[in-house]
Amino acid sequence: MALTQPVSQPGASHLDLPENVVVSRLDELASWCRKNSLWPMPFATACCGIELMATGAAKHDLARFGAEVFRFSPRQCDLMIVAGRVVMKMLPVLQRIWQQMHEPKWCISMGACASTGGVFDTYAVVQGIDRFIPVDMYVPGCPPRPEQLIQAIIDLQDKIQREGTITGREFNTRQRQQRKRALVEIPQLLTVDASRNPNLQRQLAGSARDLHDPSDLQ
Amino acid sequence: MSSPSDTLHESSPAPTEANPHREALEQAYGPLEYSVYRGQQRVVVPAEKSFDVLALLKQRGFDLLVDVSCVDYLEYRGATDRYGLIYLLASTTSNERLTVRAFVNDPEPAIASVVPLWKAANWLEREVWDMFGIHFTGHPDLRRLVMPEAFTAHPLRKDYPLQGRGERHNFPVITRDHS
Ligand code: SF4
Predict the structure, then answer these.
(1) Residue B137: its pLDDT value, please?
(2) For residue A30, which of A140, A166, B44, B178 is within the disulfide window of CB 3.0 to 4.6 Å?
(3) What ipTM, to 2 d.p.?
């Protein structure tokens, strides 16, 4: 907890506070409350959801961190945990649910699939939810162990305590998640049958050289 | 019309003992390509006669439509037709099974819907339409089954790239400012 020591500024010392009173900033108090009562929205679409359930269950006991109250209504949640791959048909649902959650809200992208699409590099699977909604924490793994998810929640709590404000100013100023991610497809070299096209073979050989150009590493 | 997979697997000719279904079919529709592979009976029928053949088979006791599926034989060795539709039939009384296949081709591959025969065909044919773009004429509700409604391609066709044509990136981006 980050409540600070009694102030020692010259002007304030004459207040003569009793011993059991501490003074802090309202922002820190609000963040302290928020971080210890995260209510997760379990957006579990695949196998990672099983580990999410394990995290909430008795052995790992997410209640120790104040985040055990899984709610199935976005209007009661402030932490979205996306556990599993999100397909094209699910993404509008994900966005709608995210928009229905009240500020302040945070998002954890759990597992390789939610973060990058994982092994499912196919036409139907969204290659990382952070292309379309803001994400605060990424948990690597396929699936991540419950300990990893707990670590992500602890890190998120640190983050909330560090930068949280009572008015949510940090969300306005941060300008997070701009359109900086590549939203255009990287040309799919493998889908083209290069063996029949000498021109293309030359191009591919050239681009492979570019990728491994040692001068890039300096 | 040749069945491509016959060039791959050695399929024995139909056993010489009497096969009542085969005889009934050939009596009605002339000689058909009938084969037995590891005890499974298969018959290839012309696409334009498929509905009548399947109706006859239903009369003959194949009361269960197990699956309707499709294979895209684009660039497949020895294939002469592009799409091979597969109907898996079973009889719940005699415990027989029969695979009926029919081939359709571009452009606008189409075949008669068998929903009037088996209601089970409804969603199965919708899935084949969604994935392969085979049009089932007479289907009561031929909508996409698994892909989003706005999707325009038929992704299990062999000439559709595995990573798609950028459909998976075609969504609005929600930033912190929007939400
Ligand atoms: S990251 Fe692994 S465990 Fe998680 S949803 Fe993807 S495939 Fe399943």
Answers:
(1) 92
(2) A166
(3) 0.77
- Look at residue A129 and give its three-state secondary structure: helix
The mean per-residue pLDDT over the stretch B52-76 comes to: 91
User: By percentage, how much of chain B surpasses pLDDT 90?
Assistant: 40
With an 8 Å Cβ cutoff, is A183 touching chain B?
A: yes
Residue with the larger pLDDT of the pair A71 and B176: A71
Please give the residue of chain B at the shortest CA–CA distance from A99.
Answer: B179
Q: What is the DSSP string of A58-89?
A: TTT-GGGGT-----SSGGG-SEEEEES--BTT
> What is the sign, positive or negative, of the torsion defined by CA atoms of A202, A207, A210, A211?
negative
The structure's pTM equals 0.76
State which residue of chain B sits closest to A174, comparing Cα positions.
B176
**Model pLDDT, residue B18:** 63
State if residue A112 touches ligand 1 by the CB under 6 angstroms criterion.
Answer: yes
Torsions phi, psi for B65 (to 5 deg): -95, 110
Q: Which residues of A touch B168 (CB under 8 A)?
A: 88, 123-127
Q: Please tell me if residue B143 touches chain A, with a CB cutoff of 8 Å.
A: no
Asked if B115 contacts B140 with a C-beta cutoff of 8 angstroms, the reply is yes
Regions of chain A where pLDDT drops below 50: 1-2, 177, 179-192, 194, 206-218
Per-domain boundaries in chain A: 32-171, 177-217
- How many angstroms from the chain centroid is the CA of residue A153? 10
Are A132 and B163 in contact (CB < 8 Å)? no
CATH of A32-171, one of 2.60.40.760, 3.40.50.700, 3.40.50.12280, 1.10.8.870: 3.40.50.12280
The residue behind tokens 């052995």 is A59
Closest CA to A133 of A160, A109, A163: A109
Are B87 and B111 in contact by the 8 Å Cβ rule? The answer is no
- The shortest CB-CB distance from A134 to any of B148, B163, B175 is to B175
Between CA A201 and CA A189 the distance in angstroms is 10
Q: Which atom of ligand 1 is nearest to the CA of A50?
A: 3
**Nearest-angstrom CA–CA distance, B84 and B103:** 5
- Split into its structural domains, chain B has a count of 1
